[in-house]
Amino acid sequence: MHFQSKGGTLLERLLIARRVELSRLAEYWHTLGASAFGILEADEVVAEWAWPAPVVTERLVSRYTISYPGGALRLFVSSSSSSPEHQPRLETDAVLVRELLRLEYELSVMTDELVQKQDQMLALYDLTRALRSEVGVEGIMQIIVQEASRILQSGGSFCRLVSPDHLVQHPAGRLPAAHVRAWCEQVMTQRSRLLLEAGAAPDVEGLLSVPVWMEGEVRAILGVFDRADGFKSPDIRLLQAIAELVGSKLEHAMMYERTLAQERINTEMTLARQLQGLLLPDKQPSVPGLDIFAAMYPAFQVGGDFYDWLNTPDSFTFMVGDVAGKGVAAAMMMAMIRSALRSVARFGFALMTPEDILEQTCEDVYDDFTRVSTFTTVFVGQYDPRHGRLVYANAGQSPIMFGRPGEPARLLEADAPALGVLPNSLSRNASLPMQPGDVLVVATDGLPEAENAAEERFGYDRLLALVEQHRHLPAADIAAQLYAAVSAFEDNRRQHDDRTLLVIKCLPHRRAATVTEAAEPDDVEGMLLD
Amino acid sequence: MNMVVTQSDGIALMLLEGRFDAYEAPRMSAWLDENIHAEQCRLVINVRMVTFIDSTALASLVKGMKRCREHGGNLAICELDKPVRIIFELTRLDKAFLIVDTQEEALHALSK
For chain B, what is the mean pLDDT? Predict the structure, then answer.
């Protein structure tokens, strides 16, 4: 058999596959005296069986056209003498050849599909294996782009996650990110594939991009580009199969990372809460003439509240503060401000009044607080049990509420902003003689800022009314009533900020024992008086 | 929270709207880091439409004030509605910030 190759590989493949049957037909024609038998496509010989013949007289061509996916063919026979039955015979052979080629073509299509499916399965198997040990989103995306390029034999590939927005390319930086994002936007908008022929887009020689679905949404986009022969239907199917695998893998990875991040936050919160708890006094102070109760009710996310005191026979110095910010950062700044306050108050205890303590602490912490962009409100009170007098200074702390029998409860407002706002403390001492029945409530803003379902805040008026209403109760009960009222108001909504209450109630004079009688060794907290 | 920034004679004018809390403060902080420098150190923040402000948000405003002053400029806050004004007064931040009633006054104060 002799072929006139026209680059028609499909025809060649079909004819070669059926060469035995075609040769038999040719042999038969030879026995009938033919010198050549063959196949024409548009008058050109594409296959021919020929035998030596001295004289060629005529060529008989079939009228029946053999259609195949690449074109149309006819049979021909050359012989020195044709007989009348040759033409019908040739037509019959043409029908036979058509059937042979049709069957061969169908077989070839089925075989191709089978091979493709097998290739795809192998490629996906390789991809699954490559992804097996990778659990991170970034790692998965890196593997995907490398494998997609390899499997689809493309010069490059990309994978873009929509949220959080993240783009990975292979080779890295091959295309301007803006171009890739523009293609991704198209895929997301159309929610279907994007196929660009070579020359249709700048920078790439052909592009195929498909959506990656996760939980019913297009959450990522996968693309391959740069292939000289362009991307065809099998490539689309293959990339879609990869996208399905990628979708499920990324979905799991993202869920895993979310759980991990949540776990990390929980751990961080636990640490911050532990740190905060460790820094608070572990028991209530005992001060002659006073009934004192202090508590901090932490929010899920540590809010930076703190309280502390130094109790000596001569004075009871206490402080309540709130570091702006949340979490570990707030807890660490809280630890710092507490140490600074304690160190100032401790070493200058006899001489330092509340405003001195704030002034010195402000100098000590201002630069650090500026560096981390935060500040802390602080209320410092100093009670002199001998004279029943309270001196205090307040750097931005609120609310401070004072209740006296026979008078409406009132707010003691700060006279200066929080420490860390200005280089110097502007806070000055204020004096408050404490009388039996007087109640001082030093609280943090977590109480008035508690919100109900209608986003209405608890506010200061309700707090003042409660102080007035429960002033007759012991300090611990006043605190319990305030906290319970705030909790009831927000009705099981999550507490957003720490809540601290330090309640000091002045006892009747008969209970105000002398300092020496009351000050037991246990009461001297944190002081190295020896 | 919505944050819209315009320019008025070399002064950045920021209009805030909504709840300004710990979740929004990082955005403000990032904006300040990027936009407040030697050439742009005068900032007016109009809080007329701010419904709530918490201490973390206040800390970001203090940061803004410090940055502006560090570069020789200042930060002015204007049009405080009652709930926000109360917070500034109770925390005495009104002693630290330049606070004025109207936007015009704020722009005028910073243009000196």
Answer: 93
